[in-house]
Amino acid sequence: MRRLTVITVAALLAAGCSGQAAAPPPAPKKAAEIGVPFGSHRLPYTQGVLRPKGDADGQVRDFYAKWKAAFVTAKCGSRQVVSPDADHPYVGEAQGYGLVIAATMGDRPLFDDILKYVEAHPSVNNPLLLAAEQDENCKSVNGSDSAADGDLDVAYGLLMAGRQWGGDYRDKAAERIAAIKESEVHPETKLMKLGDWATQDEPLAKVSRTSDWMIGHFRAFEKIDPEWAAIRQAHQKLIASIPGETGLLPDFVKDGKPVKGEVLESEHDGDYNWNALRDPWRIGADAVTSGDPASVAAARKISAWIARTGSPEKIAAGYTLSGEPLEEGPEPAFVAPFAVAALVQPDGQAWLDKLWTYLTSQEFGKKDYFAATVQLQSMIVVSGNHWVP
Q: A single GO molecular function, which one (predicted)?
């Protein structure tokens, strides 16, 4: 329906008094102005953020094309992101990643196909959340409940889609943001729970995964629900409280402290390992877009420490919180997020360029879903193409 332009009495009087015709109403925004085309850098980072040398936009586009060819499948009446190196062929984390990546790249057909898959797999506990795992036939398994990381990215991706293309994506995002707060945020600690299954009587109810501490997502959610400001601040306060010179966070915390021993996945649950490796990317992404002193300080601390290795090839595959290597590296999944943190390191240009050269020289296979997907999203931020809806 075309919106009718209403000329107010005041405007008519002003025109009569001046002897001039009333100014015409501003022209509506063109469709292209609604979105953020990849490579446009329409929403620039805060002042002082570094950039890698070379054609970073082109390198990300090339990496995206390879990633899409390797990990996007067409099954069960839609398309979805396959995760051959995860516990199940299709996981909520992967679909959330896929939505954010597709929205960032301006790939609406892929976005809508993944969203169709997401909406076809609701959690048994809250239908506005995503069942976290599906088998090769796209059937939800292992309880059909949710995992917080996938849900956070689904909601964020929907907000991005609303900015890119209009429509009802933002309304869908608002519904999911409310569901996340209801079912996946601990009412006392204000920290993210592991999923909607972690109810108050569950032993893991107060365990939180640091890779779910997506500060930039929470900041975007505040525009929908101001209560997310307190949730964001609770996570930032805890990030700042983790002791040590490295700035590294553990995979999991409980009662505000790194867990000890195996709590959910391995004996290294209290170390900087395969979950927490995403933290420099998440924290750094907020630092470059918001300039929040807490995020900037946390990212700089991590970057200053890891830069002492001198070479990406010397970055280990996991560390204790004091900085002792867990396994020999390098491993792209661990290297890539450090490049995001380096963006706010004042003297980090040479280090950033080394990291970028390493990342853009890497090849991946069809079983390297996790590393390649973390790397792609980190490269998107480093190239200057991350934005907050």
A: hydrolase activity
